Amino acid sequence: MSPHSPVAAPVKVAERITPRSPRAILAVLSLAAFMASLDVFIVNVAYDSIGESFHSSSISDVSWVLNAYAIIYAALLVPFGRLADRVGRKRMFSLGLGLFTLASVACSAAPGLWWLVAFRVLQAAGAAALTPTSLGLLLAAVPAEKRMPYVRIWSAVAGLAAAAGPVLGGLLVTASWRWVFLVNLPVGVAALVAAARVVPDSRDAAVSKLPDAAGAALLTLGIGSLALAIVKGGDWGWGGTATLAAFAAAAVLLAWFVWRAEHHPVPVVDPDLYRVRSFAAANIAMVAFSIGFAGYLLMMVLWLQNVWHWSTVTTGLAVAPGPAVVPVVTLLVQRFAGRVRPGVLTALGCVAFAAGIVTTLTLIGPHGAHYAGEMLPGQLLAGLGIGLALPTLLGSATAGLPAHRTSTGSGVINMTRQIGFVLGVSISVAILGTPTSYAAAHRAFVHGWWTMAAVEAVAALACLGLLGRRADSR
Predict the structure, then answer these.
(1) Which of 101, 164, 218, 244 has the smallest number of CB atoms closer than 10 Å to its CB?
(2) Cα 289 to Cα 459: distance, rounded to the nearest angstrom
(3) Alpha helices for 320-437 (secondary structure H)
(4) Cα-to-chain-centroid distance, residue 27
(5) What's the whole-number mean pLDDT along residues 234-246?
(6) What's this model's pTM, rounded to 2 decimal places?
């Protein structure tokens, strides 16, 4: 929706909604969110196999399979959401879902690493079109009093994907890493058919101008340059010309992006949004939270496969308990969230996540002989923290915004989340490097986990900016 509209924009619903429709709509749109989230966690488990398949590519090269997706997703999320407001959310949702599905098939057939990265860019463009439109369609189709519970369920489904992803990915990679992308084909086709029959269309009649494409390009190049500098800094030298040039390019591009946001009539990110205290605090917390989340997950997978030398199937099963806790905690939170301020809830979640990371690095041993005592406690604590923090951050970010800015705000908070993912992966790759012994690997991983725990502590402090509101304010 347009961020400059002074009043709530009229919403056009193209189909009549029956009393049972909201649940059916929720199921279909959550299926699309499930697929987009599933892809992220499956690819993490396939990380090593992809590198080995393409002539033992370095960890920094393979990181672009994750980073290219997150960067493009972050840059296009808000522009595509606004474009959908103009042309129709259902049309954009279907186009995005179709592109995501076809790009997944292309990823499965990629002949080389950089071909795979290119197809991941297309996949991210599809995800950027389907994610905000799925939430926008849901918000437009359900009664106001059901919106927050439905948004929590929509988020919890992504948590189920996080739990299923490592296990399913581990099973599929035993055949080939290419199957982790091909699995999106039947899910995508099923979601397309169901959406055509069940989901009503909606659009914002007040939107008349196209979003800032140049601003999206500046954000893409800026975040990409920053990720490049962090990932390659160890190889190039942190004081080297190439590293400093990449950091400088990132600073210039991101500053230019901010300038355009202040002057463009339809910016990628409306600066006025950040003048809402709860929104600004939620975005700061989301960046820090997502850095820790992405870094912790990637380092867990790499530790299991490269230090403990576990198979992809065993790795998937070992990683699954933490994400499996998330949807359970999310649903339980719904019962008492109205009595607890979101700042308290999210801060507790970040602290629990940090405690899970510290527990892992304290207990973990060199051989993996005692998974239940060395890794499982930290996994469960981390899952508890994610379940407390993530859905509440997503929901409370837009709780203080005017109705006509809710759609834009939800796009921005998800964009922020993806930027955090990029930084988390990049920082992890930079810290781990290429250790040649167990002692060196242990030092690198412990350093990385302490870093992620510290970042989660920063996220907890940022969450205190949400203390002015109660979770049931919307």
Answers:
(1) 244
(2) 6
(3) 321-336, 342-363, 371-374, 376-396, 406-432
(4) 20
(5) 91
(6) 0.84
